[in-house]
Design brief:
The chain is α+β, with helices and mostly antiparallel strands and 300 residues long. The protein contains 10 helices and 9 strands. Helix 1 (2-11) crosses helix 2 and helix 4 crosses helix 10. The protein is globular and about 55 Å long.
Amino acid sequence: MKDNKIIKCIREPSIIILYLMSKNFLWWLDDKSYIKLKYRLMVKSKLNLENPLTFNEKLQWLKLYDRKPEYTKMVDKYEAKKYVANIIGKKYIIPTLGIYNKFEEIDFEKLPDKFVIKPTHTSGDIFVCKDKNEIDYKKLKKEVKKWLKRKYYYLHREWPYKNIKPRIIIEEYMENESKEELKDYKIFCFNSEPKVTLVCSNRFQELKETFFDNDWKELDVTEGGHEKEKNIQKPINFEKMKELAKILSNNIPAGRIDLYEINGQIYFGEITIYPKSGYEEFSDERYNVLWGNWIQLPKT
């Protein structure tokens, strides 16, 4: 098995380069060169920055040329809560149990039995605790320290992450009274207009992703090879969700507003400026073009 991996790397040197990128060995490359190289390796085509047309191309363009200072606050897991609360109100915010600069500051005895831990400056890192008595603290400490050392900006050159202070945020564990699994409603907005909602379900097993239009009609497209979930019911507050997404995506050429519906109440998840970092793997390339047409790039 190990020999097969070596042979594959020899035949496909792009695997080695992408690995080096994931470990920040190419930190010294300027943003434009890095983004063009990674796009070539990931998408297998040349990035057109002079006249970008597709959704993925335009997100790469936006990484380089749309750099509003407020984006940093929007993607910081802690600061985003305050930012959003000031716009739409605190009732949509999942309560914070603590914010810490290092693992040793956390007093686990004061925490409830269930909670969620995240770093403020990365994407995708999370520890969900459903029973405090089952925590392997040595293992968790090692994981949290690894999070704090991550320089996430260098992975995809998403500029807003560059100046976020690495911290640890602990939030309340949210669940439905029915014990039904939470679904993540990710609303894609184009120049502040909600167009598509992605429902992520079965997150901690085999992730399923299902796209819907604004009338809750299921779209005939998948992303990243993920299967769809059948018969997803429209959330009770869907119209309100779109209304909030429109407000929160104001002045963002292409952004995604992630929301939850828990016991009939809407809660804010996060603001994503570059969905999938501009490497969406559409099952139908027509959507890559269509979504690209929906983005009006700012004049720069």
